[in-house]
Amino acid sequence: MSTQPLIDLTANPFALFTAWMSDAEASEPNDPNAMAVATSTPDGRPSVRMLLLKGADERGFVFYTNVDSRKGGDLLANPHVALLFHWKSLRRQIRIEGPVTQVSDEEADAYFASRSPMSRLGAIASDQSRPLDDRSTFEERLKAAEEKYGDGPIPRPNNWTGFRVAPDAIEFWQDRPFRLHDRALWTRDGSGWNVTRLYP
């Protein structure tokens, strides 16, 4: 059997998430904060893609996007998501479900300013998820943005912001031999949490 201890059901789920993320930062070759983000339209058509987690605390889990993108449209029309972190090097995963709200303008501005200048210019030049007639069109728009802003400040576009997932369910999973995996589910109960271990 695995020497990994069983998941501690007395743990605070945010503290456990932080501990597992710290382990992933030490063991994953790149992007330990990568996660699958699943959204759906109001009529239930799902869509999923990989994004990077950019903030996590007891208020929730934050990522950023262009609100005119497909996921942005989904989030505005149906503000509920599922997140999945999978760390192959650790043989662990975390599933998170909950409603989303937009972060404050101040938070979005601060994170946007922390990005590299080229990433900020790319956000301005890109009509994310929209059809692109030719790659050169995007490159021309990027060059035009470079010329416009030069070495000066690069403002955050109005259609680019962050979303915070306030979890109402967090499931921790870790591999054990013979598919006898260890799973534990925390579900929101008012201001507290209920927790139970799940069958593999």
From TrEMBL:
Keywords: Flavoprotein, FMN, Oxidoreductase, Pyridoxine biosynthesis. It catalyses: pyridoxine 5'-phosphate + O2 = pyridoxal 5'-phosphate + H2O2; pyridoxamine 5'-phosphate + O2 + H2O = pyridoxal 5'-phosphate + H2O2 + NH4(+). Substrate binds at residues 54, 111, 115, 119, 179-181. Its EC number is 1.4.3.5. Binds 1 FMN per subunit. Residues 160-200 form the Pyridoxine 5'-phosphate oxidase dimerisation C-terminal domain. It comes from the Bacteria. Residues 27-144 form the Pyridoxamine 5'-phosphate oxidase N-terminal domain. Belongs to the pyridoxamine 5'-phosphate oxidase family. Homodimer. Catalyzes the oxidation of either pyridoxine 5'-phosphate (PNP) or pyridoxamine 5'-phosphate (PMP) into pyridoxal 5'-phosphate (PLP). This is Pyridoxine/pyridoxamine 5'-phosphate oxidase. It comes from Gluconobacter frateurii NRIC 0228. The gene is pdxH.
